[in-house]
Backbone:
């Protein structure tokens, strides 16, 4: 299985940032960093925008974040219907990166509002799929 | 740069058109535009077919549409920019005409969606978000716009009751538009009680998937004046882009930077300001989208969109009537046809042919068309 292992239901199987999956396996969330200029990318990307010839390295993120916005999805595409309704969120991590991720069903919905502190944690699906969510 | 005028417009009936195929829908709109311009296909130098082609069974639809419209051997090609396809199609054709490569062109927006179920369509629309980092979590277009709604509510105190004013207004005018999918007004209570789609958006906060086509025929100034005594001029064209991923965007998620940028270009090119606009068509894919658009187009200050609605300023007779053809919420949203449908409505207004929804003395019109979740936004300004 390639990168389609990422997410609740992944679409893209081939990419240069496959190593993300091994970090997720270890329970870690990782970004990429340019070895030349130090610019860090999350979601990870395989090349630095500024230094196209430079190599990248992987760095682990702490996952602390705060919610910017969210929604509860009732009408879902077929592949996602088994988990409907589900929560989707956009959060800003402590190092300034933004992440789009599901909000874990363990979060009390009544407490959910923009500004709420949440942590980005690794989650595992029933088909051996891997992803992260906010909890 | 030569001036470009719209010399003919046509519109099919929008809705669940299980009586018609893609090419037949295109012909309805194109034929109506030829009638409107009182010309035949021999005058058309080239065609642009605008469609988000993943919903159509036909691949590369420009081929079959040009054939069915009788537009061979003239050049033809497809333009795709999700929901903004035909606004971008006009921009493309404008460049070809104003550069003098062609004199007269047709821009056909067409979409056949309802051979797919809403679930299948939302699966495809969800993939018009970032397919690596967002679609794998079950995104849909309503979900994306709902996230903007949640943020706007938290920042400005916007309520679901205020959002409901958008479908109530638009469905009222939709009842006067024979091409609209929904021709029955609805009440705020019906909106508020409708089933949830993606909180806080409910069924009647959403536009519906539809089949349909709309068509424009444009010409350079010299030809335009020969072909018609009532050309409508393309005065401003703004188009911008934003990161497709929500995570790649900045700010509090209560406005679309992409629309602000497109509006700036269009106002500048047309040498007008928001105050000069007599009538507008904005992309009301969802109730919240219309409110954000008021603010991004500078019809209202940030957070002031709901006030404009409550004061009736965007009704017929108000300061700036918006979507008085019913908007996407009444007409349905056949993705590739929507931009041309907006420009059809403006052209009618600026010619004084809008009947019971005519804005008295309308001289300057603005259409704003968002593609997908705002990776594209087009603002077009027309002058009588
Ligand atoms: C909201 C939505 C998910 C509802 O789809 P659905 O639950 O499958 O609804 P159905 O197609 O089964 O239709 C059921 C009924 O509701 C009506 N209906 C569907 N969507 C509607 C809408 N948005 N507004 C009003 N009525 C609607 C249908 O006409 C049908 O009525 P009928 O029983 O009288 O024929 C669908 O309309 C949708 O996806 N809208 C958003 C489209 C979109 O995102 N476009 C891109 C925007 S950028
Ligand atoms: Zn670098």
Residues:
């Amino acid at each position: 299985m390639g990168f389609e292992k990422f997410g609740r239901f992944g679409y893209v199987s081939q990419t240069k940032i496959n190593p993300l999956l091994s970090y997720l396996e270890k329970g870690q969330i990782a970004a990429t960093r340019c070895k030349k200029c130090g610019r860090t990318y999350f979601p990870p990307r395989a090349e630095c925008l500024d230094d196209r010839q430079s190599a990248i390295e992987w760095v682990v993120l702490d996952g602390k974040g705060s919610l910017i916005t969210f929604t509860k999805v009732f009408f879902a595409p077929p592949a996602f219907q088994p988990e409907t309704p589900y929560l989707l969120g956009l959060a800003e991590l402590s190092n300034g990166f933004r992440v789009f991720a599901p909000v874990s069903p363990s979060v009390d919905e009544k407490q959910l509002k923009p500004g709420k502190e949440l942590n980005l944690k690794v989650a595992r699906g029933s088909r051996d799929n891997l992803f992260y969510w906010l909890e | 740069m030569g001036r470009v005028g719209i010399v003919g417009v046509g519109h099919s009936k929008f809705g669940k058109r299980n009586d018609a195929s893609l090419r037949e829908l295109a012909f309805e709109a194109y034929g109506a535009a030829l009638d409107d311009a009182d010309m035949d296909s021999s005058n058309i130098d080239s065609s642009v077919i605008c469609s988000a082609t993943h919903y159509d069974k036909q691949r590369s639809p420009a081929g079959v549409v040009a054939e069915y419209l009788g537009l061979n051997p003239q050049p033809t090609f497809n333009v795709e920019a999700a929901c903004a396809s035909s606004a971008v199609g006009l921009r493309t054709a404008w460049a070809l005409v104003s550069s003098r490569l062609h004199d007269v062109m047709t821009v056909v927006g067409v979409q056949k969606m309802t051979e797919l179920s809403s679930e299948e369509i939302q699966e495809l629309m969800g993939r018009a978000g970032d397919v690596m980092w967002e679609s794998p979590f079950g995104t849909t277009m309503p979900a994306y716009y709902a996230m903007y709604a949640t943020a706007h509510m938290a920042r400005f105190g916007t309520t679901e009751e205020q959002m409901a004013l958008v479908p109530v207004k638009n469905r009222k005018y939709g009842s006067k538009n024979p091409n609209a999918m929904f021709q029955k007004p609805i009440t705020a209570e019906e909106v508020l009680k409708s089933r949830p789609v993606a909180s806080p958006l409910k069924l009647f906060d959403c536009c519906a998937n539809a089949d349909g086509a709309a068509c424009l025929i444009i010409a350079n100034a010299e030809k335009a004046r020969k072909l018609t005594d009532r050309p409508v001029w393309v005065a401003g064209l703004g188009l911008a882009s934003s990161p497709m991923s929500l995570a790649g965007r900045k700010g509090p998620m209560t406005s679309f930077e992409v629309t602000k940028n497109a509006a700036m270009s269009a106002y500048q090119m047309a040498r007008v300001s928001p105050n000069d606009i007599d009538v507008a068509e904005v992309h009301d894919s969802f109730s919240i989208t219309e409110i954000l658009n008021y603010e991004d187009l500078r019809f209202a200050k940030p957070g002031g969109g709901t006030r404009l609605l409550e004061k009736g300023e965007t009704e017929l007779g108000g300061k700036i009537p918006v979507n008085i053809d019913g908007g996407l919420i009444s007409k349905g949203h056949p993705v590739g046809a929507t931009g041309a449908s907006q420009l059809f409505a403006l052209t009618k207004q600026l010619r004084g042919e809008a009947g019971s929804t005519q804005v008295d003395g309308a001289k300057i019109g603005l259409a704003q068309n968002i593609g997908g979740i705002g990776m594209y936004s087009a603002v077009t300004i027309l002058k009588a």
